[in-house]
Write a structure and sequence with these properties.
The protein is mainly beta. It has eight helices and 20 strands. Helices cover 12% and strands 32% of the residues. A hairpin with a 4-residue loop joins strand 6 and strand 7.
Length: 358
Amino acid sequence: MAPSLSKRGFMSANRPQHLFCFEAPQLTGGLSTTNLKWHQVNQDLLCASYGDSDAAWRTSGSGLVLFWSLKNPSHPERALETNAGVSSLAFSDIYPNLIAVGLQNGGVAIWDLRQRSASPILDSSAQSGPTGGAQQRASGGQQSQGGSAASTLASRHTDVVWDLQWVDRGPDKFPRESLVSIGADGKVLQWDMRKGLDRAVLMSLKRSPNPDLATNVLNTGPQDRGATSQDSQAFRQSCGFCVSFLKKDPSMYLVGTEDGLVHRCSTSYNEQYLETYYGHAAAVYKVRCNPFWAPAFLTCSADWTIKLWSTKPIPIEARRGSGSYMPKRADSTALGRIGVATNTPLQSYQSTDLCDSV
């Protein structure tokens, strides 16, 4: 008979072991690791981004992207230098040789890994004019006077690009993929790569009251004095941290904000949210749609919780069933709420540390 293990012995026996460490101090120069992405084809290839959290470095500093292999953890396979700290990464699903990089100064760049050049093939900072190449071509090289073009196109992000996602628009579209970014400036931008990097505004995130926040004072600055609460809420933008598109419907997407809210949006409407989901008491750092069942999605937040949601109501019998929809350890408070509305979490998991990725 195998010897019994105490609780402490069981935990130590099942604790993950430290195998090796990817580090190159001669290259990173004290920069912080900001993001990690595994390559979906070469599964031993890990991409790591580096930047500095100091606000002074966002416009004057530099960043780095290193490609590490499990076969050689002592030195990176390749290094890409950027003119600002890197805050987000995304490999293309259709073209795995493409990688998009979001920068702390608001820029977006795309590299083709088949080329050995250190320069990106597309760079938003190289686009001339406030709205990119499309507006200049439409106006014959001069600034466009039309208000419609100015409303649909915008310059690059003016603050940190927190998340990037490649969106598969379907085999009948050209190009098949588009790139979407979300930034601290409250903008959700879609990048068209047919002729340079042309960008269109999918959504400008507006601040909304969140009853679950401990403090939710929207009018705190001197610029709000004399303005009504509704006016200030309508015109103050909210920082966006994450974006996720539905796999089977590229026109629908979810965004997580610093207000602790998740908004469901459509690419057909850039003025209002389709629905808002309440339940987090701090900023939502990551949202991910279920690739197998479209109504389900996960979120994680600075309130130390991970929550499971559904955009469709679930029958009471299914909720109280054997666990085909949810585990038996579901939060009882959440279970009591989901029978009322679909914009509250199905269940909630409490973490012992801050949650920033799912």
